[in-house]
Structures are given as structure tokens and as C-alpha cells.
Design goal:
- With 556 residues, the chain is of the alpha/beta class.
- The chain has three domains: 21-113, no CATH class; 135-347 and 480-543, Rossmann fold; 353-475, Glucose Oxidase, domain 1 (3-Layer(bba) Sandwich), CATH 3.50.30.30.
- Helix content is 22%, strand content 23%.
- The protein has helices at residues 21-24, 28-35, 38-44, 95-102, 146-149, 204-213, 245-257, 274-285, 410-419, 454-462, 483-500, 506-515, 536-543, and strands spanning 55-61, 81-82, 88-93, 107-112, 115-118, 121-122, 135-138, 141-143, 165-170, 184-189, 229-234, 243-244, 262-265, 267-268, 289-293, 312-317, 333-338, 342-345, 352-358, 361-365, 367-368, 377-383, 400-404, 424-428, 448-452, 468-475, 477-481.
- The strands form six sheets. An eight-stranded mixed β-sheet has the order 20-19-26-22-23-24-25-21, sandwiched between helices. Strands 10-11-9-13-15-16-17 form a seven-stranded parallel β-sheet, sandwiched between helices.
- The termini are far apart.
- Mean pLDDT is 84; it is low at 1-30, 37-48, 64-73 and 123-129.
């Protein structure tokens, strides 16, 4: 059964302020009057000869239109969706029908319904930028690198996002996921009755959700605002190919009616829409902060809805605060956050996170080398230097070989390890950071071979001899990258900061985020980083200074 949020009282927005229902929507009676005009008027344009394919249009209507005579017969296949936040509706029309409606005095304009796409890139071995390190500061729970980078943990002793309602406008959320179930509050699907918001066959929406609000439950990963309330507003079907702008308008209708505080839209496209822009302005007027990805084109281009005044456009940086190569720039960019190699939740029946675990050791995220099998290997490990012939002690037989990168290929290291009787191979980097490697295309019965960072390799070397470890896989987690991944970092920060002072207005939260961002690139706002990298701690201190009392120096 679909779960939905308890709606706000009729005629009230989330702050309890009344709005005019006549301002918010065109009456159903008027909509039906307009829609019953289609066939006869189209006939006046020669609709009987109209062979153009029907497509989705947005039809903007006037507030108090004159009655339209019943010149048409309603078409069921028009698939009409009426809006509440703006005066208009979406319908499937032929070109002649669209032209006919545009001439009607009760219609302001007719425009194509724009397409919106998810902005992410899955990481393939060697194909994209390497995955940054994820810290393991919480024992067996991994803290993805972006969480401390946006300065979220320093606020967790004060607030964690509780009471802030965040809508994830995406492919759905796997509500079964143990890192998300406790924060999941329901939602709605805008792509038909069969596709429910509590499932995610693609993974994009579940990944975004984990970055915003994965639980701090001692396992898996943790999000920026681990107590935020998550709502799944599904606009993509199972293929996740595209969504229509009309679905985003419906989302805004629902968000206003159900008192949401924040919307995350890790999606967009180059087409603009006047009616869609009006809906985003209405969301802003109703105290909803909307964050949207700038895009993954890697060029100067305005994507929408990020380009609308009612949205906050987010670009992407990596773990070292450098602009991601894929991040779209433009004058609409307002702020930036981590978007390269982001680890987060994924549907529990997909997504395999390579992980090295052991008694007394923090979990170590790893990378499976290309062409390596993906089985699970357990046992003690033995350091084997650079993995050259003659560097494998006899004690490595039946155990895991720990090898440092350098001098010979990964394939030679793994082949030599197998010849020495090793059951698995760990290769750690010889410079800072992770790496993506391959064992090549040559057919061979390779041992399970994983790559880790220099720091993690040195930590394993320093562990007591005979320490048991496991090279294993945890389902339900994945690394993705794109401005789709940077956007939820900012949305999560908004929820976290807002929970520090829940009575603050959306405008105050927005101003705090933008004015305290860590400046990057050209001094001041620029088209690549906006105002800079989002900083949760600095924003919270500006928004609620009383929650951070100054410590007076001790006089001696």
C-alpha cells in the first residue's frame, strides 16, 4: 500500500499561512470546458488530415477565462493532468490541437512538455575518475568522504535533520534498505499506478537518498542529515530514460500540499518552460528550497530546472575541491559539493561494494581489478613486497597476499601470487589516493584481486601478524558520480542546518548556505563553483549563533 505524508490543512502552506485556492489552480469545471473543445476546433484546422504524432504539451490558462463554447468532444487518450500550483494542465495533443488551443482566449500559451534526465555516471573500471577514499571513523560504518568535506559531523551533536521533510524527485527509493527504512516517510509516484515510490529498479534515487539521510546506525554508510525525513517523489519509470517537466510541476503541487521543506532534483535538461518556471517560483513562495543539478555536460550550458530563479543550481567538485571534469558551468550555478566517486546506498538486491574487513580493523572500501573474479576470500594475510618472483614467503600459501603497487604489472603480481599458493591478492597504491586497475584480457584463473589506497595498505602492514581479514562484497551500496551526487550533499546540508533552527524561513536557510560557502576559484561568485563549496558548520553558525556559544579565553 502506498504511504503518503499527512497533508497540511486545506488552504494552508507549511508555515501555516493561508493562500488563495483560486490563485493556485484553475477550476476543474473550466478544465473540462477547455478539454471538451479539442476535436471540433481541430476540425476547423483540418484535423481530419492531421497525421502529426501526438506529444505532451503544457497548456497555461487564464485566472478567470470567459466561457468557451463546447466546440469539441473530450478525448480520453489526451491523458490530461491538471495542476494546482500554477494555472494550467498537461495533455497529449496533436500539432493542430495545440495550435487550436493556443488561439483560445481562455488560454495564455501552449508549449511542449520538456524532458528531464538524471545527471549521474556509473563508475566503470578505468573509464572515469578514481574513487576517493571513504573514511571509517564510525567503526564498521563507513563515512563517505563527502560527508566530512561539507562539514556535517561537527553539527551532529546539536542537530541531525530531525523534523525536516526532504522530497527526493527521482527513480524511487528502496524503502527496504536498512540504511533508509527508518527515515522513509512515504511519497507518491507520478509515472502511473503500477510504479510505486517505495521501489527503485534503477538505483539513482536510492543513491541520492543515502547521501542526504542514510541512518547513523553503526553499519553501511551514513548521510549528511541522518535523521531527516525522506519522501520518494518518483518521476522516472523503470527505464529511467527521462521524465517530463509536467511531472515536476505535479511534484511541486504535492510538496506544497504536504508541507515539504526541501526538494532534491538530481535531473534536468536544456529545454526551458515558462509554466514550469512559474511552478518553481510558486514553490519558492511557499517556503520550499529546491536544489537542482547543474548538469554533466562539462561545458558552459544552462540546464533546467537548475536555471530557474526558484531553484538553487549545484555543480560538482572532487575530494580535493577541484571542479569535476563533467560538471556543467554557467551563470546559474550557485554552490558546489562533492560529486566524484560518491559512495552511497543502492537497492539491496543490486550494487556490490568491494570491502576488506577484519577483527580490530576499520572496514576498508576497495576496488575490484578488472577481469578479477568476485568471490569472497577469508584468512590471514602476508606482506609480499612488490609481488615479484622470489618475494613471496612460503607462509603465503593458503593465505592472502598483500602487495604494493609498482615496477611490474598488476597481472604479473597476481599471477606470481597464485603461483605461490595465495588465495587472494590485495594491491595497495604507491601514492596517495585510490586507483583503478586491470588484470588484462588474457584468459587466466585469477585469484580475487582488490586494490586499496596507500594509507589503507600501510594500516594493514602495521596490523598484528596473523590478523584474519575477508575480501567480500556488501550488496546495497555503490559508487556513482555526477552532479546528481553533488546536489544531495547540498540538500542534506540544508536539512541539517534547518534542523538547528527549525523556525527559520527558507530564505534565511538559503542565504546562510550561500553566504558562508567556502570560496573557490575566482574570488566571489563565479560560473564554475557559484559562491563556493557548501559548509554546514559555517551556515549553522550564521543561522543560529546562539547554539554555538563563544568560549571565552582563560586569563592567567
Amino acid at each position: 500500500m502506498e504511504r503518503t505524508a499527512a497533508p497540511a490543512p486545506a488552504g494552508m502552506n507549511r508555515k501555516g499561512r493561508a493562500f488563495s485556492t483560486t490563485d493556485q489552480s484553475t477550476t476543474v469545471t473550466f478544465m473540462k470546458t477547455i478539454l471538451t473543445t479539442l476535436l471540433v476546433s481541430a476540425a476547423a484546422f483540418g484535423a481530419s488530415a492531421d497525421t502529426s504524432p501526438a506529444q505532451r504539451y503544457l497548456v497555461a490558462t487564464r485566472e478567470r477565462p470567459e466561457a468557451v463554447s463546447a466546440r469539441f468532444t473530450q478525448r480520453v487518450e489526451a491523458d490530461v493532468v491538471e495542476f494546482r500550483s500554477v494555472r494550467g494542465f498537461a495533455a497529449t495533443l496533436t500539432e493542430d490541437e495545440a495550435r487550436s488551443l493556443a488561439l483560445d482566449p481562455a488560454v495564455r500559451f501552449v508549449e511542449p512538455d520538456p524532458k528531464r534526465y538524471p545527471f549521474d555516471r556509473k563508475l566503470m573500471s578505468g573509464a572515469l575518475a578514481p574513487r576517493p577514499v571513504a573514511s571509517a571513523e564510525a567503526g564498521s560504518q563507513i563515512v563517505p568522504y563527502g560527508v566530512p568535506l561539507v562539514q556535517a559531523p561537527p553539527l551532529w551533536g546539536i542537530a541531525r535533520g530531525a523534523g525536516i521533510r526532504v522530497g527526493i524527485v527521482d527513480t524511487g527509493i528502496d524503502s527496504r534498505h536498512p540504511d533508509l527504512a527508518g527515515n522513509f516517510r512515504g511519497g507518491k509516484s507520478f509515472v502511473g499506478d503500477i510504479l510505486v515510490p517505495t521501489a527503485d529498479t534503477d538505483g539513482h534515487g536510492t543513491h541520492v537518498s543515502g547521501t542526504i539521510g542514510a541512518l547513523d546506525n553503526g553499519e553501511g554508510v551514513v548521510g549528511v542529515a541522518p535523521e531527516a525525513e525522506l519522501y520518494s517523489l518518483r518521476v522516472f519509470d523503470a527505464s529511467a530514460e527521462f521524465a517530463n517537466g509536467s511531472a515536476l510541476i505535479e511534484v511541486i503541487d504535492w510538496a506544497i500540499a504536504n508541507g515539504l521543506n526541501v526538494l532534491n532534483m538530481s535531473l534536468g535538461g536544456p529545454e526551458t518552460s515558462q509554466l514550469e518556471a512559474e511552478a518553481f517560483a510558486r514553490a519558492e513562495q511557499n517556503g520550499i528550497l529546491v536544489f537542482a543539478s547543474s548538469g554533466n555536460d562539462g561545458v558552459r550550458l544552462i540546464n533546467y530546472p537548475a536555471g530557474y530563479d526558484g531553484a538553487i543550481a549545484v555543480s560538482a567538485i572532487d575530494a580535493t575541491f577541484n571542479l569535476a571534469s563533467f560538471s556543467t558551468s554557467g551563470p546559474n550555478v550557485a554552490i558546489t559539493a562533492p560529486g566524484v566517486g560518491v559512495l552511497s546506498t543502492y537497492p539491496i538486491d543490486s550494487g556490490n561494494l568491494p570491502l576488506i574487513t577484519g577483527n580490530g580493523l576499520a572496514d576498508i572500501p576497495a576496488d575490484l581489478l578488472a577481469n578479477s573474479p568476485s568471490g569472497t576470500v577469508t584468512g590471514p594475510y602476508v606482506f609480499c613486497n612488490l609481488g615479484r618472483e622470489g618475494e613471496f614467503p612460503a607462509s603465503v600459501s593458503g593465505k592472502i597476499a598483500l602487495i604494493q603497487r609498482g615496477e611490474i604489472t598488476f597481472a604479473e603480481k597476481a599471477r606470481n601470487a597464485k603461483a605461490a599458493g595465495a588465495t587472494g591478492v590485495i594491491i595497495f597504491n604507491n601514492v596517495d589516493g585510490p586507483f583503478l586497475g586491470t588484470l588484462g584480457e588474457e584468459p587466466f584463473a585469477w585469484p580475487v584481486t582488490m586494490g586499496i589506497t596507500l594509507a589503507d595498505g600501510l594500516a594493514l602492514r602495521a596490523a598484528p601478524a596473523g590478523t584474519e581479514i575477508a575480501l567480500r562484497y556488501v550488496r546495497g551500496f555503490e559508487f556513482l558520480q555526477g552532479t546528481s551526487m553533488s546536489c544531495p550533499h547540498v540538500a542534506g546540508v540544508a536539512a541539517l542546518v534547518w534542523s538547528v533552527r527549525p523556525e527559520a524561513s527558507a530564505e534565511e536557510v538559503r542565504d546562510a548556505l550561500l553566504s558562508t560557502a567556502t570560496d573557490l576559484g575566482t574570488p566571489g561568485r563565479d560560473e564554475f563553483f557559484g559562491f563556493g563549496a557548501v559548509n554546514a558548520l559555517a551556515a549553522a553558525k550564521q543561522l543560529a549563533p546562539s547554539r554555538f556559544p563563544r568560549v571565552r579565553p582563560v586569563r592567567r
